[in-house]
Design a protein that fits this description.
The complex is a heterodimer of chains A (about 110) and B (about 900). Chain A is an alpha+beta fold. Chain A has helices spanning about 5-10, 10-25, 30-40, 45-60, 85-110, and strands spanning about 25, 65-70, 75-80. Chain A contains 5 helices and 3 strands; from the N terminus they run H-H-E-H-H-E-E-H. In chain A, strand 2 (about 65-70) and strand 3 form a beta hairpin. In chain B, strands 1, 2, 3, 4, 5, 6, 7, 8, 9, 10 and 11 form an 11-stranded mixed β-sheet that branches. In chain B, strands 14, 15, 16, 17, 18, 19 and 20 form a 7-stranded mixed β-sheet that branches. The longest helix of chain B is centred in the middle third of the chain and has 41 residues, at about 405-445. Chain B is elongated and about 135 Å long. Classes of the chains: A alpha+beta (about 110), B alpha+beta (about 900). The interface between A and B is large, with 38 and 37 residues.
Chain lengths: ~110, ~900
């Protein structure tokens, strides 16, 4: 729960969408795992904020959820990206690139 | 997730929490498994997994918020944001709120007028089942009026044929206007009365506030000495005496017993809702029994009754109309000569009240709707500019994950707050102006002066506020949709995408403003034409006053005639008096008589009877009113019953019945006269009802020659020497009254009216329409100018760099100014072009309000766009000058 992972909060939907788009349907825990793994453990989503974020995205129609049984016979909620979600991902990715480029530029010029 | 399931979820938070808990449990368990697989003990793995997950309760709450309660807290935070924004940009907020206040205030004011006139309940139970039965004039008569009075005998027959159980009507009544002289303490007073049969009250079904209604038994010839008072008369002249019932009043020298007092809202019949031919007066002061006798008609007895009835339960208006048609057929079979005179038309009280009001009100609502639309477009334009200015902020918010909906909602909240504030201010404006408007309306459109500010007005205002708020927010929200909240777009592209929307808004504003300016112009030209046409008489330096003779003192018409002759002599002796005369009615006062005339030596044409208006007047009347004589002579004092019967006709009569020949010397006969009259003079046409009327043929006979039952109330017109400030001074008034009272001290003088006032009263509705439409027009013009200024200033600001480059490359300041002006005028001209098309459509709507000017009036259609272009040019000048003052170095350095 460092400051670094706090700032991740804003980017969480973007990352979750990207992972769902690339890796197919996943449950919340799986998404967390992928973020951690792909960031070489530098990004650790605050686990408690992941689910509210997922539910908001579900509300927005970007992802769909379904209850499934895992191999270990546990009920898990699996999320899949929707067509609208893919569009949003595209836009959000563009926004992010643009914003980070802008921030980068400010950091350089300031 | 579908909307439905989302709603279901938000209604069942318990189930939601359960689902969440299960999902989170899965997460913790999976993590514990992984930790255990990595070598941790089972218990430690579980503890670590739970710790990493954080506080379960707070997460539960935030997840729940995510779905159900969030919107509430969001509204609060949006509101906070909106207020902070408004306070930070007071100029923007003030402009938006003021625009909306003007639009919403005007709309609310007009709606409360409409509410008062159309929606206010009538003081009569089941007003849609209370019917007026109007007699329809035979088409061949070409009288210019449709509803004409019935006579006594038809009443008895119609009552017998259509009233009672199993018939169409439960009760039928007859009424006519009247007036009585009341001698209380001091000077006799003229009271406005309605003579109504007991059946009228039975049909109305109203209750008095004091006492009772008079009975059928009291409504009989020779009895009927009872009176019902209006609340106003009782509270005013009678000091609200609680013991008034049972007291007697001296009316026309007879003792009448007061049986009851009617409630304040009871003003039946409402004069303005009755056809003018009946000459009912506004705000009747008392109701007296009509006491219709049942004998046969006296030859040429005048018909002056209006019929009313209440439908029997279960009888529709159509059935009643069928019953009346059956009555017509039977009457026509019985009296073939009366064919065409028994046709009737039913009109419910509710319909009579709104007849003729819908159209002007609709026009007003339309005009005010345009004002509101332009005001909203202004606010939308302002919001759009703001949204563009805040693109950076919005883009950042969006990049950080704020959904479009979230941003849109924030804009909506902000706009709704602007609208609420604007609406509140508008309501205050409406209340303030309604007061003034009411005064204006009281003279112009008395039926519109009943303003009702009740819950309906409140609900309408609120609905308007909400819808205009949403309407205004639409433009910036469209901007969001078009993906403007995109950080990628660099500075250069900022001006794209948005100006089309603002351009469209401004074009619309200019167009609507032009529509109202054209409408105002047409009405102004129409009023000008109306005043130029005039009434056909010279209103300057003349005054009219009503004289009412007590019937007991003047039982015989010849005594009345002698009285008026003496009054003329007395008044003419006053040194400042130029001419004096009497007539039944004052000019432009409305009512009059008409008759069918015959021409000796010509065969009568029963299909096309020659209907003319006729009036009894004294010598000197035409000079007093200022109507030029075209041929022959005036009446003389020597025209008496002993001399040759004479008549004077107007130009219209001479033209219609004696085309190409001299009318003077010809003979004309009124059926009631024993012998024909010789035409001794022709006077110019002058008007009786309104300045816009078509003058009909008219015949005048001298009061000294003609027995005339209605000569007890006459209008005395006195013309005085024109002075620089010719007006009705109290001094002159006293001297005229003194001259009248020298003849008979018991005759009351009432309704002193300078003739110019009659003319202005006759044009009051036109002036009202003009003021309102012109006022709304100027308001819209101002709003549109502000809108155009905003857009041009904005675009000019966007092009600063370009202007800087141009100037650096050698463009002059004038050239840069011209660029801005050109852009502005393109917008304005587009709006004007669209506006001209709309104005053409609007002109057709206005047609019935126009006089002497076509909807396609070239002058108006040339001047209005010119005015608009001028104002719009002025609106563009400021940004153009600002662009010219740019420092090219400064602008280029900025980026």
């Amino acid at each position: 729960m460092s400051k670094a992972s706090d700032s991740l909060h804003d980017a969480l939907p973007l990352l979750a969408l990207k992972i769902l788009a690339r890796r197919g349907p996943l449950h919340g825990y799986g998404i967390t795992g992928h973020i951690q793994a792909m960031s070489d453990e530098r990004l650790r989503p605050e686990e408690g904020s992941l689910y509210p974020a997922l539910h908001r995205m579900e509300e927005a129609g970007w992802i769909e959820a379904e209850w499934v049984m895992t191999e270990k016979k546990r009920r898990a909620r699996v999320y899949a990206i929707t067509v609208r979600g893919r569009k949003e991902l595209e836009a959000a990715e563009a926004r992010w690139r643009s914003a980070s480029a802008a921030i980068q530029q400010v950091l350089q010029r300031a | 997730m579908s909307w439905l399931s989302r709603i279901r979820r938000s209604l069942r938070p318990a189930a939601l929490i359960h689902e969440l808990e299960e999902e989170q449990k899965f997460h913790v368990l999976s993590k514990a498994d992984d930790l255990a697989a990595a070598g941790a003990s089972l218990g430690a793995a579980r503890r670590e997994a739970e710790r990493a997950f954080g506080n379960g309760l707070s997460n539960r709450q935030s997840s729940q918020e995510a779905r159900s309660i969030r919107w509430l807290t969001d509204v609060a935070s949006d509101t906070r944001l909106a207020w902070r924004d408004m306070l930070r940009r007071p100029g923007f907020a003030a402009a938006a709120i003021l625009s909306l206040a003007l639009g919403l205030g005007a709309a609310t004011a007009v709606f409360s007028l409409a509410n008062g006139a159309l929606l206010r309940p009538l003081p009569v139970p089941q007003a849609d089942r209370f019917e007026f039965i109007w007699r329809q004039a035979p088409a061949s008569l070409q009288m210019g009026t449709e509803e004409i009075p019935w006579d006594r005998v038809v009443f008895w027959k119609m009552q017998a044929a259509t009233t009672g159980p199993g018939h169409a009507f439960a009760s039928l009544g007859a009424l006519r206007p009247g007036s009585v002289n009341w001698t209380g303490e001091g000077e006799p007073v003229r009271l406005r009365a309605v003579l109504a049969s007991a059946g009228v009250f039975a049909a109305l079904g109203v209750r008095p506030e004091l006492g009772r209604i008079y009975t059928e038994a009291e409504d009989q010839p020779g009895r009927g000495r009872v009176a019902l008072l209006s609340d106003a008369l009782w509270r005013g002249a009678l000091h609200a005496d609680p013991a008034i019932v049972g007291h007697t009043l001296d009316l026309d020298g007879q003792a009448y017993t007061v049986v009851g007092v009617m409630p304040p809202e009871f003003q039946f019949p409402e004069a303005a809702a009755m056809p003018a031919i009946f000459a009912f007066q506004a705000r009747p002061q008392l109701w007296l029994p009509l006491a219709l006798s049942s004998g046969p008609l006296i030859p040429y007895e005048s018909a002056e009754l209006a019929f009313v009835g209440r439908l029997n339960p279960g009888v529709g208006a159509r059935q009643a109309a069928a019953a009346l048609d059956a009555f017509r057929q039977r009457s026509e079979t019985e009296q073939p000569r009366g064919k065409g005179w028994f046709t009737s038309r039913l009109q419910s009280l509710a319909a009579a009240h709104t007849a003729g009001l819908r159209q002007p009100l609709l026009l007003l609502l339309l005009a005010v709707g345009l004002v509101l639309a332009v005001a909203c477009a202004n606010v939308a334009g302002l919001l759009l500019a703001r949204a563009l200015a805040r693109r950076g902020e919005l883009a950042l918010k969006a990049a950080l994950g704020a959904g479009r909906w979230r941003l849109a909602r924030q804009m909506l909240t902000e706009t709704l707050w602007l609208a609420l504030l604007g609406g509140g201010l508008g309501a205050l404006l409406a209340l303030a102006t309604l007061h003034g408007l009411q005064g204006l309306l009281a003279t112009a459109l008395p039926r519109l002066s009943g303003v009702a500010t009740d819950w309906r007005v409140f609900a309408f205002g609120l609905a308007l506020i909400l819808s205009s708020g949403m309407g205004c927010a639409l433009a910036p929200m469209l901007l969001l949709r078009s993906g403007a909240g995109d950080l990628r777009s660099g500075k250069g592209s900022v001006s794209r995408g948005s100006p089309q929307l603002r351009t469209a808004l401004v074009t619309g504003q200019v167009a609507l403003a032009l529509v109202l300016v054209v409408a105002g112009g047409l009405l102004a030209r129409s009023l000008q034409a109306l005043l130029a046409a005039g009434g056909g008489f010279d209103p300057q330096a003349a005054v009219a006053v009503k004289l009412s003779l007590p019937q007991s003192a003047y039982p015989d018409w010849s005594q009345a005639a002698r009285f008026y002759q003496s009054v003329r002599t007395q008044v003419a002796r006053l040194p400042e008096v130029v001419a004096v005369g009497v007539n039944k009615t004052a000019p432009l006062a409305g009512d009059g008589e008409s008759t069918i005339v015959r021409f000796p030596g010509r065969p009568a044409d029963p299909e096309h009877p020659a209907a003319v208006n006729y009036a009894m007047i004294s010598a000197g009347y035409f000079t007093a009113v200022g109507v030029p004589r075209l041929a022959g002579r005036d009446f003389l004092d020597s025209d008496t019953q002993a001399s040759m019967p004479v008549a004077i006709v107007n130009q219209a009569l001479a033209d219609k019945f004696y085309p190409g020949a001299a009318a003077v010397g010809q003979q004309i006969r009124i059926p009631v006269d024993p012998e024909p009259r010789t035409i001794v003079g022709v006077v110019a046409n002058f008007k009786h009802d309104s300045l816009s009327e078509q003058v009909v043929p008219e015949l005048y006979a001298p009061i000294t020659q003609k027995p005339w039952p209605a000569m007890l109330t006459m209008s005395l017109v006195v013309r005085v020497r024109a002075t620089p400030h010719a007006g009705l001074t109290a001094h002159l008034r006293d001297r005229i009254a003194g001259a009248v009272h020298a003849v008979d001290a018991h005759v009351p003088l009432s309704d002193w009216t300078p003739l110019p006032q009659l003319v202005s009263r006759a044009t009051a509705p036109q002036r009202l329409a003009l003021w309102l439409v012109a006022g709304f027009g100027l308001l819209t013009l101002l709003l549109a100018a502000i809108g155009l200024y905003g857009v041009v200033a904005y675009i000019a600001a966007q092009r600063r760099r370009e202007f800087g480059v141009r100037m650096a490359l050698g463009a002059t300041r004038t050239a840069v100014s011209a660029l801005v002006l050109r852009q502005g005028s393109r917008l304005a001209l587009g709006g004007i072009a669209v506006g001209l098309l709309l104005a053409a459509a609007a002109g057709r709507l206005l047609q019935s309000y126009l006089f002497g000017v076509r909807a396609w009036d070239p002058l108006t259609l040339a001047l209005a766009p010119a005015l608009l272009a001028l104002v719009m040019l002025l609106a563009c000048l400021v940004p153009a000058r600002r662009a010219a003052r740019l420092d090219p170095v400064e602008t280029l350095r900025q980026d």
